Amino acid sequence: MKKPKVVVLGAGYGGIMTTVKLQKMIGTNEVDLTLVNKHDYHYQTTWLHESSAGTLHHDRTRIPIKDVVDFNKVNFVQDTVISIDPKAKKVILEDGELEYDYLVIGLGFESATFGIKGIEEHAYTINNVNSSRLIRDTIEYNFSLYNNEEEERPELITIVVGGAGFTGIEFVGEVANRLPELCHEYDIDPSKVRLVTVEAGPSALAGFDPELVEYAMNRLEAKGVEFKIGTAIKEATADGIVVEKDGVQEEIKTKNFVWAAGVRGNSIVEKSGFEVNRGRVQIRPDLRTPDYDDVIVVGDCAVIMNEETGRPYPPTAQIAIQMADVAAHNVKVMVRGGSEFKEFTPNILGTVASLGEGDAIGVVFGTRKLFGWMASVMKKIIDNRYLLKLGGIGLLLKKGKFNIFK
Amino acid sequence: MKKPKVVVLGAGYGGIMTTVKLQKMIGTNEVDLTLVNKHDYHYQTTWLHESSAGTLHHDRTRIPIKDVVDFNKVNFVQDTVISIDPKAKKVILEDGELEYDYLVIGLGFESATFGIKGIEEHAYTINNVNSSRLIRDTIEYNFSLYNNEEEERPELITIVVGGAGFTGIEFVGEVANRLPELCHEYDIDPSKVRLVTVEAGPSALAGFDPELVEYAMNRLEAKGVEFKIGTAIKEATADGIVVEKDGVQEEIKTKNFVWAAGVRGNSIVEKSGFEVNRGRVQIRPDLRTPDYDDVIVVGDCAVIMNEETGRPYPPTAQIAIQMADVAAHNVKVMVRGGSEFKEFTPNILGTVASLGEGDAIGVVFGTRKLFGWMASVMKKIIDNRYLLKLGGIGLLLKKGKFNIFK
To answer: At what angle are helices A166-185 and A210-222 packed, to 10 degrees?
Structure first.
């Protein structure tokens, strides 16, 4: 008897957790399980703002897939997904093709540029290990260049972050913390460095309680961060960005422009013919796509509506990880030919945004607000909890964050 | 009675050693001694190839001037020399002027481009702390960029060194040693990285014994260095260099081109009207310039002929340091109105070229050839000996190289 082929695309939070759960829930006698990923490692997307700022080495964010996936139970294919053909039930890879009976798409996010001119070409993004490491090295390179130039070039030591949402704020907090070290390393007068955050919306950290937002902005401003709120980025060029507020345009010269203002689902999903909204598939409650009973979407390529607010839940690691529980269960149901599909309901335990080592803001247990050290500890507990879930105590000890009293 | 004003320009090997000796030899009641330097630190030029490769932090090469110069005895002026007016006996600085009765010029070297098109604009140089740190950061930035590019761009991970003389070889040896770490840090397949040394002359390490040259080339080739000997660089561009051998031209694409093929004296000296040959003043045996009895030149701005070979001595730290002895004595003679000038005779104790940590070649005591570990230890002893001479045991313990058994 032919075993059904299950293929999981992507080893991000959703994909790897689905795989790890499936390898425990269902035997190799029942299923032929394959995981496809571009790299041989999983990485913690929620820690990348630290690697980008250079405050946490990217190797700390990476987990070798072989450390959490049992290659005796799972075929691991290191390759890049080019497209999916859901009608023919196959996946086109850079170096081949894969057929599937059941597919789990966990291909993650891309930056959304909202059509703003020049972002694609001139902005750096906190998307993956490679792009984050490049932000660190770009800042270092430009700071290094500064004292080698005949004329003053302030754009080299001006860092601009597009977006004061979750990622933008977390990144700027790390950079602010690192600036004293950077200035020392490169013999630069700290008073000459600019760290600017530009936000088109009416507030930083949209969705957070105003008291928390105020705390965050005060703390960051005290570290030298300039906020330009209600200010839209009109264009990015090789030498800076053009912003507009109340109809007045201004150029901010910078060679270090990081775009952290929006994400969308991986464009492979849209290109493969799935119906999407900002690259994300509006999935059924059991996580299957509207059109295909054999395709599940987890993580940032999926969109779930929050019935209370009437708006979609933001794509977070927390939701991706919770989706994996349901995805793994429903794959098992499909493989076994059952019909007891589980439905997915997000259970938002808490949301904590870091403001740099030792400081954070957050909401836990629904309404409990946290500031500063307490929030920072909570953030580390959340991170450590995930590692425990993914790879057990061994992984936690290897990759966990234990400097909670720092 | 007016005290004579002695001004020393530059805190490189020659300038700082002259100052340190003078402050011991002659009291503040006799002389008004001023040291002018662009930075508030002295640095070890002979260690910069390590900072450039990223194998030794530049702070290890730096010594705060206040640690070796007694500011109660010496006026320290942190400023940039623009020009010298030897007729009016004054020095024009960026932020003012200084008058002198006796002047010591120790303004060091610049890269000589030999008029090769594009070197000035597109090559990195191992000239000072800023330019060396920039080489490290440029290589890291380009390696970081490599995995972010849609198309393969081998020029990002190709490092080309122009010149297989002392500095070029020492630099390439350090880079070769660091490559495994760089490839690991940036997830790059080491077999794709190229490390090329281009030398116009008929041999690497001109002036060294052929047996030593062969040893050096073999060792470096074993670490992956490609040598292109008898190959002239015709042009440097933003994307690489054009070389020519036996009338055949070839382009080598690189974003990491380091020019280490020649030095000349600081151009300020030539611009100030002193008669020079490749920027260097052909000084009298007592180190004074041919035209001015009150101006002494030490270090790389001075040229001394080797009577035996009929060629000038290469500008080295060793000679600069030895010149400082004579310079300080002769300044004292001038200040006191005597006539017992000392004449300078170089005493070449040894010449050791590093091939990267733990390996070197050299000649000591005239003809004794050294290889490998022995030569490497000798190199560190020479370095440590200088620190002891400059700042005593305290400085030696702080900045010395003690990993001699590594």
So the answer is: 10
